[in-house]
Automatic annotation (TrEMBL):
<protein>
    <recommendedName>
        <fullName>N-acetyltransferase domain-containing protein</fullName>
    </recommendedName>
</protein>
<dbReference type="InterPro" id="IPR016181">
    <property type="entry name" value="Acyl_CoA_acyltransferase"/>
</dbReference>
<dbReference type="GO" id="GO:0016747">
    <property type="term" value="F:acyltransferase activity, transferring groups other than amino-acyl groups"/>
</dbReference>
<dbReference type="InterPro" id="IPR000182">
    <property type="entry name" value="GNAT_dom"/>
</dbReference>
<dbReference type="InterPro" id="IPR052564">
    <property type="entry name" value="N-acetyltrans/Recomb-assoc"/>
</dbReference>
<feature type="domain" description="N-acetyltransferase">
    <location>
        <begin position="5"/>
        <end position="154"/>
    </location>
</feature>
<dbReference type="Pfam" id="PF13673">
    <property type="entry name" value="Acetyltransf_10"/>
</dbReference>
């Protein structure tokens, strides 16, 4: 039987399951694009404390299939962050579903321009959703390696 996919608001006790989902997605999706030092930086950035903080201060969504956490995304002010869909469930429209809900919530809160940091992996996805590159950023990580990403924005209401 195929489980129904449910979207709900995350609670602090969901942080560990969210972290597992995020780490698995980073390990699978980033290894062909980023050096290990950048992967370690991403994983540390999405630590338990930061996840709980954003659950409490922002609007954090989770997608579940039965007991399994399969996707997430958070809105904090005008910033969409921590958008991840578990590899097995990618390219099924779930990322879009998460982003559209975050954009709807942002509009409800009066946000006009949504912003986000896009990994090199996620950048094509955000382009399809109408986000435009504002700047390319380079963050130095360990062993002289760099982490490249894009700052992107979208004017809400312009679908
Ligand atoms: C980026 C991500 C959230 C997209 O989620 P998803 O559920 O696979 O996306 P969807 O199925 O909703 O895709 C929406 C559209 O984007 C396209 N798309 C998604 N990922 C893509 C990619 N990596 N390259 C090119 N196109 C992509 C889809 O084909 C689809 O196009 P369509 O509307 O023309 O059919 C997901 O792949 C992911 O978690 N990636 C790794 C983690 C990551 O980088 N997260 C963002 C943190 S900055």
């Amino acid at each position: 039987m195929t489980e129904e996919i449910i979207m709900k608001i995350a609670e602090p006790q969901d942080a560990d399951s969210l972290r597992e989902l995020i780490n698995e997605t980073i390990d699978t999706c980033y290894s062909h694009v980023y050096p290990q030092e950048a992967i370690d930086y991403f994983k540390d950035y999405h630590n338990r404390l930061n996840i709980v903080k954003d659950i409490l201060e922002g609007y954090c969504l989770i997608l579940t299939s039965g007991e399994e956490f399969i996707g997430t995304g958070t809105l904090l002010g005008s910033n969409a962050r921590r958008v991840f869909v578990k590899p097995k469930y990618q390219k099924m429209g779930l990322g879009k579903r998460i982003m559209y809900r975050l954009e709807e919530k942002a509009v409800e809160k009066g946000v006009r321009i949504m912003d986000l940091d896009a990994s090199l992996v996620a950048y094509p996805f955000y382009r399809i959703l109408g986000y435009e590159i504002q700047t390319e950023e380079v963050t130095p990580v360990k062993n002289g390696q760099n982490l490249r990403y894009y700052k992107m924005v979208k004017k809400l209401g312009d679908k």
